[in-house]
Write a structure and sequence with these properties.
By secondary structure, the chain is of the alpha/beta class. Helix content is 44%, strand content 14%. The protein has a six-stranded parallel β-sheet, with helices on both faces. Helix 3 links the parallel strand 3 and strand 4. The longest helix is centred in the middle third of the chain and has 29 residues. It is globular and about 50 Å long.
Length: 221
Amino acid sequence: MIKRTALITGSTGEIGKSIVSSLKEDVNVIAPTRKELELSSNSSIENYVSSLDIPIDIIINCAGIHKAGNCENLSAYDFQNILQINLIAPFQIISGLVKGMKERKYGRILNISSIWSIVSKEKRSIYSASKSGLDGLTRTLALELASHNILVNSIAPGYVDTKMIRLYNSEKELEIIKEIIPLGRFAKPNEIGELAKFMCSEKNSYITGQIIPIDGGYLTK
């Protein structure tokens, strides 16, 4: 069996680390540092993609940033910055690498989205907009690339037990949220990693264009 190669952004975050850990036994993983690949710079992305000298079979866009706030307290700069990292950079990486996937008639592209692309919450306007855009990109590229055996999907995590959820929620708020989640707990990062592993594997041969929540049933409430 051919050992595939995956490019994963955002590998230093807790979810990113889990995805790398889940995939690395079965695929070659390239996880560039910020020094190697600066997602806020279009020229850095272009230079990095063009410098790759091995075929990339799997792309996982995991890097993302978030800034919470009421709309009047957020700036156009905040909007541009979040869209750049969460949406424009994934598009640029995919568009720069998809030609080789087409030639080889194989590819798996996975975007790490959020349940806040499906529903929303106060002070999430820019983040929700960026993730909704990412899911729109997922659906469209799935149609464009299906004939080339390239599958494109999004995973939409809910509350994951990471440092990030504690930045935006008090411990009291987190306990209330747990009561809303049917499974009564937050996801563990490795649960996201294992789903990503399947979605990017050859075992997944028929799922494309989907936004897959992994949220303990939160969206069913």
